[in-house]
Amino acid sequence: MMKARVAAMGEEAKKSEAKRLFDKLELLSEFQESQSILLYWSLPDEPCSHEFLSKWREKKNLLLPAVIGDELELRRYKGDSDLAVGAFGIKEPIGEPFFDYDKVELALVPGLSFDAAGYRLGRGKGYYDRLLPHLTRATTIGICFECQFENSLPHDEWDVPLKRILYQGE
User: Fold this and answer.
1) pLDDT by residue (tens digit) across 78-118?
2) Distance, CA of 100 to chain centre
3) What is the CA radius of gyration of the chain?
4) E-assigned strands of the chain?
């Protein structure tokens, strides 16, 4: 259902809303005060992060996840030329792993849907639910198109709620 909602938006609407979301992110004190930030390389049904990553890669320590087995491994984003297609067809950095989780101050998390309590519907593998408990100092923010936001989603005891959800109507 969420995939159909996003597909119905059209490319121009997705691009426009994504730009507004990332402009909004830049105004947040959590972003302005953070130096080490976990982001994501967006898929077509997620707010596009590519321009934002390029804009900030020289000013902040940006990290992207890489799928290694059943875990997400963090790696520094140095630019598009340092990316390779990894698991599930998602571009990932090819550099050294970053394990200093205590230095991550902000984590921007994608998903298929989010709710008012901070829960997210991911893609079913639990990668972020296993990673987020390690990011004890990070402010965790979900990001989504407005059509992906719900008042309530089903969740299990292992699901990790995010501290905030960033969407157009927020």
Assistant:
1) 999 999 999 888 999 999 999 999 999 999 999 999 999 99
2) 19
3) 15
4) 36-38, 61-68, 71-76, 83-85, 91-93, 97-98, 106-109, 113-115, 120-121, 139-143, 149-150, 164-166
Q: Are 92 and 86 in contact (CB under 8 A)?
A: yes
In angstroms, the CA 17 to CA 165 distance is 15
* Cβ-defined contacts of 23-28 (< 8 Å, 24+): 24/166, 25/52, 25/108, 25/141, 25/143, 25/166, 28/141, 28/166
- The percent of residues in the chain predicted with pLDDT above 90, rounded, is 88
- Which domains are seen in the chain, by residue range? 2-166 (3.40.50.10420)
Residues 6+ apart with CB under 8 A from 59: none
Strands 71-76 and 106-109: what pairing? unpaired
135-169 pLDDT, tens digit per residue, is 999 999 999 999 999 999 999 988 889 999 999 88
